[in-house]
Amino acid sequence: MDHWIRHPSEPKELILVWQAPSSVEDRLRWAVGRVKAAPSGFVFDYLEEEEFRALNEGRNPQELQAAGYAGYPAFDVKKRSADGFRDRVIEALLRRLPPSTRSDFGDFLAYFRIPSDTKLSPLGLLAATEARLPGDGFSFIDPLDPMISTVDVVLEIAGFRHHAPHASPIALGAQVTLSAETFNTHDPHAVAMSIGGAKVGYVNRLQAPSVRKWLEIRSVNGWISRLNGRPDAPRAFAFVEVRPQRSSVAA
């Protein structure tokens, strides 16, 4: 397999998500905040209740707190100003990644299928890596640009641990088919991911609306790029290549 992110996503904003420890039965990845690029730098803010419910399947903040959530350590909600947090926001978030001066930084990028000579903005780097740290449950989701014509992204296959036991053994490089699941009453934007006709999971619900649009107006292809996790909680990631439809190119 020789799939590399040659056309990275460069988002204007990212969604901060949090997942409870593995000891908690509810494994929802909660959307809790946004970081945005602004003319004066970067701004982080927690989601207001209406948007919180919209991005979290109608659930409320009280349920999140009951799962053990206490906010992102660098952004104390008690110190939040009316326009969010603006002081050294991106510096705080980039501490989740190894410094680019490290001798093995190229290996770090390669793990995420990013060529070492790729120039990424701070948000682009956080988007491509999700900036996960072991133990704290936080990571970043790129909501993706539904109208972009050319982009390469690596997407985690949501729900893989539930579908994997029923699928045939999966190999790196296996072709992944993405399809709109129009009959899904739970999520009107659902995009299923399948291998050889067998469903192996879904596109993350926070990215599904954009991917659903891609399926309508772009050529979208996917391949398994990474398999990891634990035996009781396997994880899989698909390299997804988005290109203009051939008819669009000819026009």
Q: What's the topology here?
A:
Elements: E1 13-19, E2 29-38, E3 41-46, H1 49-55, H2 61-66, H3 89-94, H4 105-111, H5 122-129, E4 138-141, E5 151-158, H6 160-163, E6 175-180, E7 191-195, E8 198-203, H7 208-217, E9 218-230, E10 233-244, H8 246-250
Antiparallel strand pairs: 1-2, 1-4, 2-3, 5-8, 5-10, 6-7, 6-9, 7-8, 9-10
Explained architecture:
The chain has 251 residues and is of the alpha+beta class. It folds into two domains: 1-143, no CATH class; 146-251, Alpha-Beta Plaits, CATH 3.30.70. It is built from eight helices and ten strands. The strands form two sheets. It has a six-stranded antiparallel β-barrel. It has a four-stranded antiparallel beta sheet with strand order 3-2-1-4. The two termini are 31 Å apart.
Shape: globular
Approximately what portion of the residues adopt beta-strand conformation?
Answer: 25-35%
Number of domains: 2
Order of helices and strands: EEEHHHHHEEHEEEHEEH
Major β-sheet annotation: 6 strands, antiparallel, barrel
Q: Would you count the extended β strands for me?
A: 10
Q: Please state how the strands of the largest beta sheet are arranged side by side.
A: 5-8-7-6-9-10
Distance separating the two termini: 31 Å
Radius of gyration: 18 Å
Low-confidence stretches: none
| Helicity level | 10-25%
Mean pLDDT over the full residue set: 93
Computed structural class: alpha+beta
Q: Helical segment tally?
A: 8
